[in-house]
Amino acid sequence: MTTLRRSLLAAVAAAGLAASAASAQAPQFFRIGTGSAGGTYYPIGGIIANAISCPPGSRCRATGDGGGTDGVPGLVAVAQATQGSVQNVNLIQSGNAESGFVQSDVTHWSYTATGLFEGRPKLDRLRFIAHLFPEHIHAVVRKDSPIRSFEDLRGKRIAIGLQASGARIGSELILAAYGLQPNRDYTPEYLNQAQGTERMQDRGLDATMTVVGYPAAAFSEFCARTGCRILPVTDEAAKRVIERAPFYAQGVIPKAAYEGLDADTPTLTVGALWLVRDSVPEDLVYGITRALWSETTRALLDGGHAKGREIVRERALLGRGVVPFHPGAEKFYREAGMLN
Predict the structure, then answer these.
(1) Which CATH number characterizes residue 209's domain?
(2) How far apart are CA 41 and CA 192, in angstroms?
(3) Which pLDDT band, with edges at 50, 70 and 90, does 23 fall under?
(4) Are residues 130 and 227 in the same domain?
(5) Which secondary structure element, helix H or strand E, spans residue 5, and what is its range?
(6) Backbone angles phi, psi at 189, to 5 degrees
(7) Which residue in 132, 195, 136 sits closest to 161, CA to CA?
(8) Is pLDDT at 235 greater than 60 in this prediction?
(9) Per the structure, how many domains does the chain have?
(10) Contact, 288 vs 32, CB < 8 A?
């Protein structure tokens, strides 16, 4: 064999090895649609994205490297800021996000094309990974505001959430339970809680409403800086909402949730779910579900956000309704003895 031939063969072999190594190190990206930066979805999404990731070149426990992460080998998960639940189900359906956080009412209505999604195409690519935490209706006013009840919101300017958010749906539901309709009984502003509290700070709005897990950063900052109150939801109004949307339940925002609150506030709650597109491979979703409920992720959630402590395996299966499990998630829960 000539020197030239040996050199060519060596070069081809080296190129093949390099290509193989490059292929083995190619990252797999996984998008999580969350919410606006001032809410709870976005920071929780960042914690979970970090927990389930193990980028190429990192040491992953799943591969026996003894690394510090329980993430999926080769996975790079990214939390994307969005308008919230309504946008997230559409991103998943269209394939513009692999997964997203969604309120349980929006999940059911969008999957079945019923309720507030009646007349629209069914979003049938949605699949269930896990229930994460309860979210609470917040109706926040300034501490010095004369508004004391939902009835006092008649004729007022109210931030009710972004157009494509579950917050808007929840806000409109509770206001309707008090007989208040947009553009007739109040002026709606389609703003997230950070934008709404900024406008209240300048007295450009009378109230900001949303559906969010407490403590929400925008409200924490506003209550500490300006002073706030949260309007209570009466039993009668709560029952009217639950009759229309049985995914809701009565709950409480404790006075310790935000600085300056004088008492616990009765309100309504709805579950925050993690959904994924049906086309995501089974082994990938299995690894993601395993990573979500690992001890390493437990520590990240406990230390990363107050709401993270409420993301517990014992409530992982709540709120699914009629939306099917993703096969990868279902496999994990069966192996864990959580499904028959």
Answers:
(1) 3.40.190.10
(2) 12
(3) very low
(4) no
(5) helix 3-25
(6) -120, 125
(7) 195
(8) yes
(9) 2
(10) no
Instruction: Tell me the residue type at 33.
Output: G
Q: Which domain holds residue 217?
A: 135-270
Say if residue 151 is in the same domain as residue 238.
Answer: yes
- pLDDT at 269 (0 to 100): 93
DSSP 260: T
What number of other Cβ atoms are within 10 A of residue 340's Cβ? 4
pLDDT tens-digit map of 41-76: 999 999 999 999 999 988 888 766 666 689 999 999
Which positions ≥6 away from 239 have C-beta within 8 Å? none
- Give the pLDDT of residue 201: 94
What are 270's two structure tokens? 């709805």
Is the pLDDT assigned to residue 175 strictly greater than 50? Answer: yes
> Tokens 């506003």, residue?
222
Q: How confident is the model at residue 115 (pLDDT cuts 50, 70, 90)?
A: confident
237-267 tens-digit pLDDT: 999 999 988 889 999 999 999 999 999 999 9
Q: How far apart are CA 126 and CA 107, in angstroms?
A: 8
Burial class (CB in 10 A: 0-12, 13-18, 19+), 125: middle
Write out the two tokens for 187: 């002026």
- 190 within 8 A of 166, measured Cβ to Cβ: no
Dmax of the chain from CA atoms? 94
120-146 pLDDT tens trace: 999 999 999 999 999 999 999 999 999
Q: Is residue 154 part of a domain?
A: yes
Inter-residue contact 323 to 126 (CB < 8 Å): yes
Omega cis (within 30) before 232: no
> CA dist 217 to 88, 198, 207, 213, Å?
21, 13, 17, 10
Can you list the positions of beta strands (E) in 23-154? Answer: 28-33, 53-54, 72-73, 75-80, 99-103, 126-142
